[in-house]
């Protein structure tokens, strides 16, 4: 028995740090980097999470300390760089305007390598809101052909703060406005796609102008995934009739069966059971949709009303193999 | 945060204040030797016992995670013996969680049974409550038979509430409402409880999309409960039942509205009716509007939200909140 237990112990892959209590009680802003180095070198993920949260506690709501961490992050390497920015991101002080401004400056600083700027811009994603000026500068940067991964990070931050704003029942429209600009204008397909899919996380109700702008993406985006996302976003337009008409026209002209499948199923997200005539017509244009039409019709006849429920009741959510086309 | 930590946090705040008073009195702490070593039951127990009162949430979170992570490879005999011996509720919770983690990863099959037994049989209600918490957000619910119905009859209100919290969080975070047997376990426990507060707590936020027919009948029965809180929560739960049960649920809620005197229950009835019908509920809601003039604003808010044509329940709830906020 003892032997077996000794063997089990040998295989233990979780590392323990008996002195961590002393670290925790004694560490200060001044000693953090020096003391944390051996812990980071251990590559233990629990310890790394601890260091992030501990740094956030040390920063507290102190803008000066937060600014210090931004400075450290300008030249810190590897795991330390990530811990510094994650700790800052979690801290209370990051919500202070001067700290957010400093992060944004670093993120847009041409003197820093792009991957570092991406980290700085990502650390802004815990903001409760962004100022109109910050939104403009991030959106402009994301449309810059040279912005690469940092432009991608700026776009993701705009999307994440928009989602948070929506969750708090705030106004998502200033963020959405910038994101649609990126979704339309960025020369980088990945950045455009990120902006096109950002509203899928908060499903804003679209007004007439936003509906117009997303309709243009549906009609002109060269990337199928972008048109697919546009269909899903447009399903939340307040102008149901217009979107059903748009979906019908687009379906007829659309060559990709995957985008056709998006237009077909998201018609149900537009208008529920009332979309069935439109879906029936699509199934006449493309007979591959006949059995799918039958399924939707039956699910509505059974009394289902919620689109999510309908979607989850489908016997096959991937009838054309579209979900795995990128693998 | 677990209740046992709240008092400790207050104390921790105090020591932090005292420690930071005269800077000259505390020389900078010496850098601890941060060597990682393989974990042992005794070492972890010592670290936990010392550290769980720490004022640093980051450190407490680390300690909470590390024993669960190490659990699979710790010697099982030692771990079980430590669990059987331990009487401090906070430590029992840690050790129980480690045993549950072992059982979840199938390192040990009967570990969970030992935990369940202690949740039901320990003499100290704080230990029973702590053991129940240790099973939260795990798959324990599927392997513990009628434990939750029995916990509903526990003499301690704390234990009953902790059990209710498990049923809520397991259904929400482990199964996302998609596992019928887990939904039924929650409804069976809620209806077996003689504590109206506990019944209401379980039912008010329960996702019932996969509710079984028998549990559905029990839920309908709760509409006649003498406690308004229970009737309110049952009405909310009935809003989400599967298509096959929607007809009887709608009839029950509509039929009950006129005779119901409690304003909170009436609000819940209206919400349940809205969820069961989406836009189709509008004519019914118009009819109910004259029954009680004080309910008219609430019903109007629902009608406006439903008429927006949004096809997903979560988004409809948000639209209703948003529309009420704008007014």
TrEMBL record, chain B:
InterPro entries: ARM-like (IPR011989), ARM-type_fold (IPR016024). Residues 1-25 form the signal peptide. It holds the Pfam family HEAT_2. Keywords: Signal. PROSITE patterns: PROKAR_LIPOPROTEIN. This is HEAT repeat domain-containing protein.
């Amino acid at each position: 028995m003892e032997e077996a237990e000794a063997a089990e112990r040998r295989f233990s892959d979780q590392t323990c740090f008996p002195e961590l209590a002393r670290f925790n009680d004694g560490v200060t802003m001044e000693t953090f980097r020096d003391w944390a180095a051996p812990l980071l070198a251990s590559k233990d993920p629990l310890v790394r999470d601890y260091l992030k949260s501990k740094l956030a506690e040390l920063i507290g709501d102190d803008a000066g300390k937060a600014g210090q961490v931004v400075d450290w992050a300008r030249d810190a390497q590897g795991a330390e760089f990530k811990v510094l920015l994650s700790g800052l991101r979690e801290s209370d002080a990051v919500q202070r305007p001067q700290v957010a401004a400093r992060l944004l400056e670093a993120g847009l600083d041409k003197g820093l390598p792009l991957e570092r700027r991406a980290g700085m811009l990502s650390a802004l994603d815990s903001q409760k809101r962004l100022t109109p000026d910050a939104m403009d500068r991030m959106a402009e940067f994301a449309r810059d052909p040279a912005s690469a991964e940092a432009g991608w990070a700026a776009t993701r931050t705009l999307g994440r703060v928009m989602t948070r704003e929506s969750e708090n029942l705030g106004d998502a429209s200033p963020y959405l406005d910038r994101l649609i600009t990126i979704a339309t204008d960025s020369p980088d397909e990945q950045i455009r796609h990120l902006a096109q899919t950002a509203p899928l996380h908060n499903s804003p109700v679209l007004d007439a102008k936003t509906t117009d702008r997303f309709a243009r993406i549906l009609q002109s985006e060269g990337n199928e995934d972008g048109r697919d996302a546009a269909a899903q976003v447009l399903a939340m337009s307040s102008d149901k009739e217009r979107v059903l008409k748009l979906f019908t026209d687009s379906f007829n002209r659309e060559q990709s069966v995957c985008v056709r499948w998006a237009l077909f199923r998201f018609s149900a997200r537009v208008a529920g059971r009332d979309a069935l005539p439109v879906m029936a017509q699509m199934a006449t244009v493309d007979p591959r949709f006949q059995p799918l039409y039958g399924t939707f019709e039956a699910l509505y006849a059974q009394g289902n009303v919620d689109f999510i429920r309908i979607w989850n009741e489908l016997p096959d959510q991937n009838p054309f193999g579209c979900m795995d086309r990128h693998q | 945060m677990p209740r046992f930590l709240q008092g400790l946090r207050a104390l921790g705040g105090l020591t932090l204040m005292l420690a930071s008073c005269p800077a000259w009195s505390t020389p900078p702490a010496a850098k601890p030797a941060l060597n990682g070593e393989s974990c042992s039951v005794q070492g972890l127990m010592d670290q936990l016992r010392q550290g769980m009162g720490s004022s640093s949430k980051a450190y407490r979170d680390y300690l909470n995670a590390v024993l669960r992570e190490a659990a699979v490879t710790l010697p099982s005999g030692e771990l079980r013996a430590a669990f059987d011996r331990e009487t401090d509720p906070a430590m029992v919770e840690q050790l129980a969680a480690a045993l549950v983690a072992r059982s979840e990863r199938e390192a040990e099959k009967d570990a969970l049974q030992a935990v369940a037994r202690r949740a039901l049989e320990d003499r100290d209600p704080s230990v029973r409550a702590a053991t129940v918490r240790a099973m939260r957000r795990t798959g324990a619910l599927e392997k513990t038979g009628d434990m939750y119905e029995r916990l509903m009859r526990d003499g301690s209100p704390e234990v009953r509430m902790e059990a209710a919290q498990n049923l809520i969080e397991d259904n929400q975070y482990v199964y996302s409402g998609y596992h019928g047997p887990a939904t039924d376990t929650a409804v069976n426990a809620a209806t077996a409880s003689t504590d109206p507060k506990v019944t209401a707590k379980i039912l008010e936020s329960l996702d019932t999309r996969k509710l079984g027919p028998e549990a559905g009948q029990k839920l309908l029965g709760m509409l006649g409960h003498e406690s308004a809180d229970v009737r309110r929560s049952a009405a909310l739960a009935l809003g989400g039942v599967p298509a096959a049960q929607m007809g009887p649920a709608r009839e029950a809620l509509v039929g009950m509205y006129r005779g119901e005197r409690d304003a909170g229950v009436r609000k819940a009835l209206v919400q349940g009716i809205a969820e069961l019908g989406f836009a189709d509920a509008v004519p019914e809601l118009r009819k109910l509007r004259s029954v009680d003039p004080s309910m008219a604003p609430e019903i109007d808010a629902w009608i406006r939200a439903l008429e927006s044509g949004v096809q997903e329940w979560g988004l409809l709830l948000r639209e209703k909140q948003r529309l009420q906020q704008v007014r």
